[in-house]
Design goal:
Helix content: over 70%
Order of helices and strands: HHHH
Number of helices: 4
Distance between the termini: 136 Å
Oligomer: single chain
Structural class: mainly alpha
Largest sheet: none
Number of strands: 0
């Protein structure tokens, strides 16, 4: 830093009373108007010099710092607002995702219930078809068994009749005997099935 004559003036003013008092004893309680006046003058000169040279730099630094702090506060406030907006957006998305998941679960449950009902209906239809087929098979087997019994009964009755009559039965007689016996056996079976 370069010294100017103006900045050297306070040094001279401070040093003058000290140099003048060198020859005398100093009174600590005494009041020297010249010394106090010099101190005030030095203060005023230093104030003026600082005001002209240093204060603009200090003020500029303070203003720059204030502007920086304000911009940082503004940026922080903007970041906070953006963060709040992002949080709200994420909460909305989370709520929508939950609702979508619940809808998907409900749709899956409804689909599952529909499939279960379809399977139940299909199983019942297959079971009924199997029952009907079993009934038809049983009925056919029953008719075949009855017809076989009729034929066997007719043959047996013919054999019994031949032995009783000791004669040969003609085919017409045989047919008539068979029809009579079959009719009688059918009535007996129908009566026993009904009970």
């Amino acid at each position: 830093m370069r010294r100017t004559p103006l900045t050297a003036l306070p040094l001279v003013l401070i040093a003058a009373p000290v140099l003048a008092a060198e020859g005398k004893a100093m009174n600590p309680i005494g009041f020297d108007l010249l010394q106090y006046g010099a101190a005030i003058a030095v203060f005023l000169v230093a104030l003026i010099v600082l005001r002209i040279t240093a204060w603009p730099k200090i003020a500029a630094g303070l203003e720059a710092r204030e502007a920086k702090i304000r911009s940082e506060v503004f940026a922080t406030e903007e970041a906070r607002k953006k963060a709040e907006d992002l949080i709200k957006q994420h909460q909305r998305e989370l709520t929508e995702a939950k609702a979508s998941a619940e809808r998907s679960i409900e749709q899956a449950r409804a689909e599952q219930a529909r499939l279960a009902a379809d399977l139940k209906v299909k199983a019942e239809a297959e079971l009924n078809a199997m029952r009907d087929e079993a009934r038809r098979s049983i009925e056919a087997a029953k008719k075949a068994a009855v017809a076989e019994i009729y034929e066997h009964a007719a043959a047996l009755s013919t054999a019994v009749a031949q032995q009783i009559l000791q004669r040969e039965v003609r085919p017409d007689d045989h047919r008539r005997f068979v029809d009579e016996i079959v009719g009688k056996v059918a009535k007996d079976l129908a009566a026993s099935s009904a009970s």
